[in-house]
Amino acid sequence: MAKRIYNFSAGPSQLPLPVLEKAASELVCWGDSGMSVMEMSHRSKAYQSIIDTTEQRLRNLIGIPDNYKVLFLQGGASTQFAMVPMNLMNKNHVADYAVTGQFSGKAYEEAQKFGDARCVATTKDIVFTRIPQQNELNLSDDADYMHICFNNTIYGTKWNYIPETKCPLIADMSSCMLSEPVDVTKFGLIYAGAQKNMGPAGVTVVFVREDLIGDPIEGTPTMLTYATHAKNGSMYNTPPTYSIYMVGLVAEWLESIGGLEEMKKINLKKSAMLYDYLDSSKMFINPVEKSSRSMMNVTFKTESADLDAEFVAAATAEGLCTLKGHRSVGGMRASIYNGMPIEGVEKLVDFMGKFEKNH
Length: 359
Prior knowledge:
Elements: E1 6-7, H1 17-25, H2 45-62, E2 68-73, H3 76-88, E3 94-99, H4 102-111, E4 116-122, E5 146-149, E6 151-152, E7 157-158, E8 169-172, E9 189-193, E10 204-209, H5 226-231, H6 241-257, H7 259-280, E11 297-300, H8 305-317, E12 320-321, E13 332-335, H9 342-358
Parallel strand pairs: 1-12, 3-4, 3-5, 5-8, 8-9
Antiparallel strand pairs: 2-10, 6-7, 9-10, 11-13
Helix pairs in contact: 1-6, 2-6, 3-4, 6-7, 7-9
């Protein structure tokens, strides 16, 4: 068997090894069912227990109130760019969007198809190197909701506060969900593609306040209506059964290590280690304003694209893989999600020091 690498991919990302090992032990036969989870009917009692347990673990871990539905959907966060306005831009047909990176920009563009989507703040002019503060938000009085991307995977920024709004706050938390505690009650709806921090690709988890369900704009397809999935327990059609099972295993692992408070301590230690090195380095530069730095996605670069490419190639040879930055910004990016152990970050920092010394 080949030796496992340290995978710094932005997603699909490295999963916790204990989760993979448990999944491997149950791959052929789950419990006494006589079959793999992949083979189970989603209508079976065995699978119902899996999805129910997954939901309850998430509720317990995060502290999701009873008046919020937990939905397991398909289509990735990108489908939520349409589902949110189709279901929630339903009163004044107005919505506020903070554009702080590529994905929030795509969400804003998609929302324009369904109503008056307004860009109420952006840092595009400074290449999204910081998050707008509360006094920079030009909020509308008549907005049905405000949308933010809480952690920006490509640019390595994160909202360091929760915006105060008169309308429901909607957040894309794809790349930071389960990395630290979050007060769900501050949001009307949270969505997250699982493949960055919650599990494998294939399932998108949505937490939505019940009073926001049930009144989509006219013509919304059945499959793109939150009420459809809420009424049917995410079983209107065949859900992504194995991915949901894996999210449950990740939640179980988080419980075993002490929950989200403990996970936050570990993640802060990992990110501080990397940022401390970058701040002391004469070769590597992190362009993000310190108050807006992401705990999950650390971006950096050198003075030249050629040197960046040399670094990525040399790091890959050392088992430090998928460090190339997004094609739109270049440089490097280390995604240090929950599944990345501290040892992986230690090895990366050690390698960066040696590379810098040799150049």
